Amino acid sequence: MCGIVGYAGRREAQPILLDCLKRLEYRGYDSAGIAVAGKGLQLFKSKGEIAVLESKMPRMPGTVGIAHTRWATQGKPTTENAHPLDDCSHRLAIVHNGIISNFMGLKESLVKDGHRFASETDTEVFAHLVESELKGDLVDAVSKALRQVEGTYAFAVVAADRSEIVATRRESPLVVGLGEGENFLASDVTALLKYTNRVVYIQDDEVVRVTMDSVSIRGPSGELVEREAQKITWSLEDAEKGGYPHFMLKEIFEQPDAIHDSLLGRIETLETEPFFQGDSFTSVKVVACGTSYHAGLVGKYIIEELAKIPTTVQISSEYRYSPVARESPLVVLITQSGETADTLGAAREARKRGNKTVGIANVVGSAITREVDHVIYTRAGPEIGVAATKTFATQLAALYLLAMDLGVQNRVLTAQAKRSITGSLRNLPRAVQDVLNQAHLIEALANKYSGAKDMFFIGRGINYPVALEGALKTKEISYVHGEGFPAGELKHGPLALISKESPVVAIAVKDHTYERMLGNISECSARGSPVIAVAFEGDTEIAKYVDDTIRVREIPPIFAPVPIIVVLQLWAYYLAKAKGCPIDKPRNIAKTVTVE
Ligand code: AGP
């Protein structure tokens, strides 16, 4: 959802800004722009991806600047609406990630005061507000302008003839990178890894002034804030493609290691260092969006089975506005980015309602970590591809650990059960590696069915949400209309859609639902639909019912979602590849959704 970067140093700002910006392109690619301050103000922007900007822009000498890549919310994706936006005098340039919710009223009164607007964006009002307030100090002007805006934002502002960037945030991410004789700003640390691994996270309503040799942060009342820098352990290599054609494929193939890292050390220490010392809960609510929501749905089965605690799952944007009556004392918020606005809002709401909150997040230091009582990091490393893959698998790993811990606290897990669970968890990376070894087979099948416009994904029990996630991956990156259903529901409506034109991917592992699944598969094949099964190795029966089969290692069914989702991720990836889709940057989607 829009990426912003800033640079103040001794080197030319333009190439560094562009380089950092490219690493944020997963946040939006409707338009891009750059402004270099210092001697006067140079500004260049263009509709389309960063490559378009790069191919057109002139050299812009100067050592201080800001840049932006846009995911359009207010105003069409045009060059006029691209950021940076400037004021009437063309001496201020502003980049913004978020939404100014009261911009209409502000715009009306600014226009009455004689300001001329050049775009349809909400952002531009901030440029004119700062212009009106600028009497000398840029921090003062930004602070005064901020008092008038409502909404969510990360802003960065530069002004002609000044060697400083002033930036601020509310509910949108903003991090300062500390260098030697140079400092940086970005929406996400991955943009800065090439230049520094020392960062300071800016918090809501703080205003930061960044120059080449200083970073000073003011709190909401103007007080000076001292904050220790954090060291980021991710390497630049982690955030690069490393020979893979797409980040998504690299991230799919990183899953054995990611799951291993996610579990590392924790299985052993859970007993001596539980997540919840002495707490036991009568019910759990999981709250998340998109893929993280699907992880939550799988988590419901895991928690109910291992900890015997009734669990409900809700989409963050629904939870926030739902009545409080059916509350749970433990609310688990899942968000890989840790910056999803709806989930952050839900976390605040959960706390306000007096619940204990746990965040499952991938990005260390992200906003969710400040909104919850306890954080479980998924340790998946940076995920750049817009489609969530390794973060989903590691969210499941975290949920197994959480469920085990809750089960221990609730005294429902015997020592033998725990041993068997930990044994299965340790085997998960191998089960995933088995799937990766069959990538060529999955590619061949995806190619075979790549002409389909509609595709259905069915599963039962714990594999129903896996089917939903397979459908989401498919529609998100291949633009094939994928729908996920609980297999038993087909006959209540969706069967009307089934035909020989619509392949069905059926998750049919040998668990207590297997026989019923075979029945549901027959319902589809009887209507001419080709069926591709995801089944356990050694299942000799399934081939009689389906057209094609993809095998996963036989493991206890509660753990099967992990290798199965890897099959469906590869399926979606190869479908998208066959169709020539822009896999890492699907249309209309941004990796981190910082608007509600
Ligand atoms: C999945 O491929 C999507 N990119 C999307 O559904 C994502 O999972 C959702 O926006 C939630 O993001 P979060 O985990 O960072 O909160």
Write up this protein.
With 596 residues, the chain is an alpha/beta fold. The chain folds into three domains: 3-238, Aminohydrolase, N-terminal nucleophile (Ntn) domain (Glutamine Phosphoribosylpyrophosphate, subunit 1, domain 1); 244-429, 3-Layer(aba) Sandwich (Rossmann fold), CATH 3.40.50; 438-584, Rossmann fold, CATH 3.40.50. Helices cover 34% and strands 22% of the residues. The protein contains 18 helices and 25 strands. An eight-stranded antiparallel beta sheet has the order 3-2-4-1-10-9-11-15, covered by helices on one side. Strands 5-6-7-8-12-13-14 form a seven-stranded antiparallel beta sheet. The protein is globular. The structure holds 2-deoxy-2-amino glucitol-6-phosphate (AGP). Residues 289-292, 335-337, 340, 343, 386-388, 476, 591-593 line the site of 2-deoxy-2-amino glucitol-6-phosphate. 2-deoxy-2-amino glucitol-6-phosphate binds at residues 289-292, 335-337, 340, 343, 386-388, 476, 591-593.
Helix fraction, binned, reads 25-40%
The gross shape turns out to be globular
What is the overall number of helices? 18
The CATH architecture designation of the largest domain is: 4-Layer Sandwich
The residue-averaged pLDDT reads 93
Radius of gyration: 25 Å
* Cα-to-Cα separation, first versus last residue: 11 Å
Provide the CATH top-level class of the largest domain. Answer: Alpha Beta
Bound molecules: 2-deoxy-2-amino glucitol-6-phosphate
CATH H-level superfamily of the largest domain:
Aminohydrolase, N-terminal nucleophile (Ntn) domain
- What name is given to the CATH topology of the largest domain? Glutamine Phosphoribosylpyrophosphate, subunit 1, domain 1
Summarize the main sheet: 8 strands, antiparallel
Strand content: 15-25%
